[in-house]
Design a protein that fits this description.
5-stranded antiparallel beta sheet; 5 helices; 4-stranded antiparallel beta sheet; Neuraminidase; globular; alpha+beta
Protein backbone atom coordinates (compact mmCIF):
# COMPACT_ATOMS: atom_id res chain seq x y z
CA UNK A 1 0.00 0.00 0.00
CA UNK A 2 1.31 3.47 -0.81
CA UNK A 3 0.38 7.15 -0.87
CA UNK A 4 -2.14 6.58 -3.69
CA UNK A 5 -4.45 5.03 -1.10
CA UNK A 6 -4.58 8.36 0.70
CA UNK A 7 -5.33 10.33 -2.45
CA UNK A 8 -8.08 7.88 -3.34
CA UNK A 9 -9.82 9.09 -0.18
CA UNK A 10 -9.55 12.66 -1.40
CA UNK A 11 -10.98 11.55 -4.75
CA UNK A 12 -13.95 10.01 -2.97
CA UNK A 13 -14.44 13.26 -1.08
CA UNK A 14 -14.43 15.20 -4.35
CA UNK A 15 -17.02 12.83 -5.83
CA UNK A 16 -19.25 13.26 -2.80
CA UNK A 17 -18.97 17.02 -3.15
CA UNK A 18 -19.89 16.92 -6.82
CA UNK A 19 -22.88 14.69 -6.18
CA UNK A 20 -24.18 17.02 -3.50
CA UNK A 21 -23.51 20.20 -5.48
CA UNK A 22 -25.66 18.94 -8.38
CA UNK A 23 -28.70 18.79 -6.14
CA UNK A 24 -30.86 21.78 -5.16
CA UNK A 25 -29.21 23.82 -2.41
CA UNK A 26 -30.25 22.34 0.93
CA UNK A 27 -28.77 20.87 4.07
CA UNK A 28 -28.32 17.11 4.17
CA UNK A 29 -28.51 15.93 7.77
CA UNK A 30 -27.41 19.37 8.81
CA UNK A 31 -24.54 19.54 6.33
CA UNK A 32 -24.14 21.49 3.12
CA UNK A 33 -22.24 19.97 0.21
CA UNK A 34 -18.99 21.79 0.99
CA UNK A 35 -19.30 20.84 4.66
CA UNK A 36 -19.51 17.20 3.57
CA UNK A 37 -16.32 17.72 1.58
CA UNK A 38 -14.54 19.37 4.52
CA UNK A 39 -15.54 16.50 6.81
CA UNK A 40 -14.33 13.95 4.26
CA UNK A 41 -10.97 15.70 3.89
CA UNK A 42 -10.60 15.79 7.67
CA UNK A 43 -11.17 12.02 7.69
CA UNK A 44 -8.55 11.65 4.96
CA UNK A 45 -6.01 13.59 7.05
CA UNK A 46 -6.74 11.27 9.95
CA UNK A 47 -6.30 8.28 7.65
CA UNK A 48 -2.98 9.74 6.48
CA UNK A 49 -1.68 9.75 10.02
CA UNK A 50 -2.97 6.22 10.58
CA UNK A 51 -1.39 4.88 7.40
CA UNK A 52 1.82 6.90 7.62
CA UNK A 53 3.85 3.77 8.23
CA UNK A 54 3.28 2.87 4.59
CA UNK A 55 4.88 6.19 3.64
CA UNK A 56 7.99 5.47 5.67
CA UNK A 57 7.15 7.89 8.51
CA UNK A 58 5.17 7.23 11.68
CA UNK A 59 3.45 10.61 11.90
CA UNK A 60 1.20 9.82 14.85
CA UNK A 61 4.07 8.15 16.68
CA UNK A 62 6.37 11.15 16.19
CA UNK A 63 3.78 13.59 17.54
CA UNK A 64 2.79 11.31 20.41
CA UNK A 65 6.43 10.81 21.36
CA UNK A 66 6.79 14.55 22.00
CA UNK A 67 3.81 14.50 24.33
CA UNK A 68 5.05 11.35 26.09
CA UNK A 69 8.41 13.00 26.73
CA UNK A 70 6.48 15.81 28.42
CA UNK A 71 4.73 13.47 30.85
CA UNK A 72 1.77 12.65 28.65
CA UNK A 73 0.08 16.05 28.43
CA UNK A 74 -2.05 14.70 25.55
CA UNK A 75 -3.35 11.13 25.41
CA UNK A 76 -3.52 8.98 22.30
CA UNK A 77 -7.30 9.39 22.19
CA UNK A 78 -6.99 13.16 22.46
CA UNK A 79 -4.45 13.23 19.64
CA UNK A 80 -6.79 11.13 17.50
CA UNK A 81 -9.56 13.66 18.07
CA UNK A 82 -7.26 16.57 17.24
CA UNK A 83 -6.14 14.90 14.03
CA UNK A 84 -9.78 14.42 13.01
CA UNK A 85 -10.28 18.17 13.57
CA UNK A 86 -7.48 19.01 11.16
CA UNK A 87 -4.69 19.66 13.64
CA UNK A 88 -0.97 18.78 13.44
CA UNK A 89 -1.05 17.38 9.87
CA UNK A 90 -1.81 19.16 6.59
CA UNK A 91 -2.47 17.39 3.29
CA UNK A 92 -2.71 19.17 -0.07
CA UNK A 93 -2.19 17.02 -3.16
CA UNK A 94 1.34 15.63 -2.95
CA UNK A 95 2.28 18.13 -0.23
CA UNK A 96 2.28 17.04 3.41
CA UNK A 97 3.23 19.11 6.46
CA UNK A 98 3.53 17.78 10.01
CA UNK A 99 3.94 19.81 13.21
CA UNK A 100 6.21 18.34 15.90
CA UNK A 101 5.29 20.33 19.05
CA UNK A 102 8.79 20.44 20.50
CA UNK A 103 10.58 23.56 21.79
CA UNK A 104 11.46 24.95 19.30
CA UNK A 105 8.79 23.50 17.03
CA UNK A 106 9.92 21.39 14.07
CA UNK A 107 8.00 21.13 10.80
CA UNK A 108 8.35 18.04 8.58
CA UNK A 109 7.57 18.71 4.92
CA UNK A 110 7.15 16.47 1.89
CA UNK A 111 6.32 17.50 -1.67
CA UNK A 112 6.22 13.99 -3.12
CA UNK A 113 3.48 12.19 -1.17
CA UNK A 114 5.81 11.22 1.64
CA UNK A 115 8.59 9.62 -0.39
CA UNK A 116 11.13 12.17 0.89
CA UNK A 117 11.05 14.66 3.75
CA UNK A 118 12.77 17.86 4.81
CA UNK A 119 12.73 19.57 8.19
CA UNK A 120 12.54 23.20 9.24
CA UNK A 121 12.79 24.82 12.68
CA UNK A 122 10.32 27.55 13.63
CA UNK A 123 12.45 30.34 15.06
CA UNK A 124 10.74 32.06 17.96
CA UNK A 125 8.74 28.99 18.99
CA UNK A 126 11.11 28.05 21.82
CA UNK A 127 9.05 30.40 24.02
CA UNK A 128 5.50 31.75 24.14
CA UNK A 129 3.96 34.88 25.60
CA UNK A 130 1.44 33.50 28.07
CA UNK A 131 -0.41 34.79 31.10
CA UNK A 132 1.44 38.08 31.20
CA UNK A 133 5.04 36.99 30.60
CA UNK A 134 7.39 35.26 28.17
CA UNK A 135 7.50 31.58 29.09
CA UNK A 136 10.06 28.95 28.08
CA UNK A 137 8.26 26.06 29.76
CA UNK A 138 5.03 26.21 27.73
CA UNK A 139 3.84 23.01 26.09
CA UNK A 140 2.00 23.33 22.79
CA UNK A 141 -1.30 21.47 23.02
CA UNK A 142 -2.86 22.39 19.67
CA UNK A 143 -1.57 23.30 16.24
CA UNK A 144 -2.82 24.14 12.74
CA UNK A 145 -0.76 24.41 9.57
CA UNK A 146 -1.73 25.14 5.99
CA UNK A 147 -0.84 26.99 2.80
CA UNK A 148 -1.89 29.95 0.69
CA UNK A 149 -0.85 31.16 -2.75
CA UNK A 150 2.20 29.71 -4.49
CA UNK A 151 4.76 29.68 -1.66
CA UNK A 152 2.93 30.78 1.48
CA UNK A 153 2.28 28.76 4.64
CA UNK A 154 0.81 29.59 8.03
CA UNK A 155 1.28 27.98 11.44
CA UNK A 156 -0.77 28.45 14.61
CA UNK A 157 0.26 27.05 17.99
CA UNK A 158 -1.92 26.91 21.09
CA UNK A 159 -0.71 26.68 24.68
CA UNK A 160 -2.41 25.37 27.82
CA UNK A 161 -5.94 26.43 28.73
CA UNK A 162 -6.72 28.40 31.88
CA UNK A 163 -10.21 29.66 32.79
CA UNK A 164 -11.39 29.90 29.19
CA UNK A 165 -8.18 31.52 27.96
CA UNK A 166 -5.48 30.08 25.70
CA UNK A 167 -2.19 31.69 24.63
CA UNK A 168 -1.42 31.40 20.92
CA UNK A 169 1.43 32.11 18.53
CA UNK A 170 1.10 32.68 14.77
CA UNK A 171 3.82 32.27 12.14
CA UNK A 172 4.01 32.91 8.41
CA UNK A 173 6.36 31.41 5.80
CA UNK A 174 6.87 32.83 2.30
CA UNK A 175 9.23 30.07 1.10
CA UNK A 176 7.15 26.88 1.44
CA UNK A 177 8.03 26.34 5.08
CA UNK A 178 11.81 26.67 4.86
CA UNK A 179 11.80 29.68 7.22
CA UNK A 180 9.15 31.18 9.48
CA UNK A 181 8.36 34.64 10.87
CA UNK A 182 6.15 35.26 13.91
CA UNK A 183 3.30 37.73 13.43
CA UNK A 184 1.01 39.42 15.92
CA UNK A 185 -2.25 37.79 17.02
CA UNK A 186 -5.39 38.58 19.06
CA UNK A 187 -3.89 37.12 22.26
CA UNK A 188 -0.70 39.19 22.12
CA UNK A 189 -2.70 42.31 21.38
CA UNK A 190 -5.13 41.66 24.24
CA UNK A 191 -8.02 41.80 21.77
CA UNK A 192 -9.36 38.32 22.55
CA UNK A 193 -8.00 35.38 24.56
CA UNK A 194 -10.44 32.52 24.10
CA UNK A 195 -9.81 28.88 23.08
CA UNK A 196 -8.80 28.35 19.44
CA UNK A 197 -10.85 26.00 17.30
CA UNK A 198 -9.36 26.77 13.89
CA UNK A 199 -7.02 28.99 11.89
CA UNK A 200 -6.55 29.74 8.20
CA UNK A 201 -5.02 32.36 5.91
CA UNK A 202 -6.40 33.13 2.46
CA UNK A 203 -3.37 35.32 1.65
CA UNK A 204 -0.35 36.60 3.55
CA UNK A 205 -2.48 39.58 4.62
CA UNK A 206 -5.90 38.00 5.22
CA UNK A 207 -6.14 35.51 8.06
CA UNK A 208 -8.70 34.15 10.50
CA UNK A 209 -8.60 32.76 14.05
CA UNK A 210 -11.72 30.88 15.20
CA UNK A 211 -12.72 30.41 18.83
CA UNK A 212 -15.05 28.27 20.91
CA UNK A 213 -18.06 30.12 22.30
CA UNK A 214 -17.34 31.53 25.76
CA UNK A 215 -18.29 35.11 26.65
CA UNK A 216 -21.23 35.03 24.26
CA UNK A 217 -22.94 32.52 21.96
CA UNK A 218 -20.65 33.30 19.01
CA UNK A 219 -19.60 32.55 16.38
CA UNK A 220 -16.35 34.20 17.47
CA UNK A 221 -13.97 34.77 14.55
CA UNK A 222 -11.18 37.36 14.48
CA UNK A 223 -9.74 38.54 11.17
CA UNK A 224 -6.67 40.41 10.05
CA UNK A 225 -6.42 42.19 6.70
CA UNK A 226 -2.86 43.44 7.21
CA UNK A 227 -0.83 40.35 8.02
CA UNK A 228 -1.43 40.42 11.77
CA UNK A 229 -0.84 44.11 12.43
CA UNK A 230 -4.44 44.51 13.59
CA UNK A 231 -7.26 42.09 14.40
CA UNK A 232 -11.00 42.71 14.63
CA UNK A 233 -14.00 40.50 15.21
CA UNK A 234 -16.17 39.51 12.26
CA UNK A 235 -19.78 40.58 12.63
CA UNK A 236 -21.70 37.35 12.01
CA UNK A 237 -25.45 37.30 12.68
CA UNK A 238 -26.97 33.90 13.55
CA UNK A 239 -28.91 31.97 10.90
CA UNK A 240 -32.38 33.42 10.42
CA UNK A 241 -34.15 30.40 11.89
CA UNK A 242 -32.12 30.73 15.12
CA UNK A 243 -32.33 34.50 15.57
CA UNK A 244 -35.43 34.38 17.79
CA UNK A 245 -33.65 32.75 20.76
CA UNK A 246 -30.04 33.87 21.06
CA UNK A 247 -29.49 32.00 24.34
CA UNK A 248 -30.53 28.54 23.18
CA UNK A 249 -27.86 27.98 20.51
CA UNK A 250 -24.09 28.40 20.76
CA UNK A 251 -21.62 28.35 17.86
CA UNK A 252 -18.15 26.88 17.36
CA UNK A 253 -16.46 27.86 14.06
CA UNK A 254 -13.61 25.81 12.60
CA UNK A 255 -10.78 26.45 10.13
CA UNK A 256 -11.96 28.00 6.85
CA UNK A 257 -11.04 26.27 3.58
CA UNK A 258 -10.17 28.46 0.59
CA UNK A 259 -10.07 27.84 -3.15
CA UNK A 260 -8.92 31.17 -4.50
CA UNK A 261 -11.44 33.84 -3.51
CA UNK A 262 -14.05 31.23 -2.58
CA UNK A 263 -14.06 29.86 0.93
CA UNK A 264 -16.14 27.94 3.44
CA UNK A 265 -16.02 27.96 7.23
CA UNK A 266 -17.67 25.03 9.07
CA UNK A 267 -19.69 26.09 12.12
CA UNK A 268 -21.09 23.63 14.66
CA UNK A 269 -24.32 24.85 16.27
CA UNK A 270 -25.13 23.31 19.67
CA UNK A 271 -28.71 23.31 20.92
CA UNK A 272 -28.29 23.77 24.67
CA UNK A 273 -31.83 22.51 25.32
CA UNK A 274 -31.67 19.20 23.45
CA UNK A 275 -27.88 18.74 23.38
CA UNK A 276 -27.97 18.11 19.63
CA UNK A 277 -25.36 19.58 17.28
CA UNK A 278 -25.77 20.58 13.64
CA UNK A 279 -23.00 21.43 11.17
CA UNK A 280 -23.56 24.53 9.06
CA UNK A 281 -21.14 26.65 7.08
CA UNK A 282 -20.33 30.24 6.28
CA UNK A 283 -19.32 31.04 2.71
CA UNK A 284 -17.30 33.80 1.09
CA UNK A 285 -16.73 34.67 -2.56
CA UNK A 286 -14.41 37.62 -2.00
CA UNK A 287 -11.46 36.12 -0.14
CA UNK A 288 -12.99 36.44 3.31
CA UNK A 289 -14.09 40.07 3.21
CA UNK A 290 -17.77 39.14 3.57
CA UNK A 291 -19.45 35.93 4.73
CA UNK A 292 -22.95 34.49 4.41
CA UNK A 293 -24.60 31.34 5.70
CA UNK A 294 -24.53 28.62 3.06
Amino acid sequence: MNAMWIFALIGEADERYLEESERPAKRVRGKTARAVLIAAIAAAVLALAAAAGYLGLDIRGLIMDVFDRNEGVVTGAELEQQLSEGQWVYLNGENIAVILPERPVKILLSSDSGETWRESTVEGSESMYAFGEERYDILYLSGWIGSFGEDGMYLALGGPLAMGSQPISLFISRDNGATWREIDDPYHQGVYRGVMTGVAFATAETGFVCYRYYEDAGPVVYRTLDGGETWSRLEIAPPEEYASDSYRWVYTPESPVFEGANGAMPVTVLDQVTGESTLFELRTQDGGLTWDWG
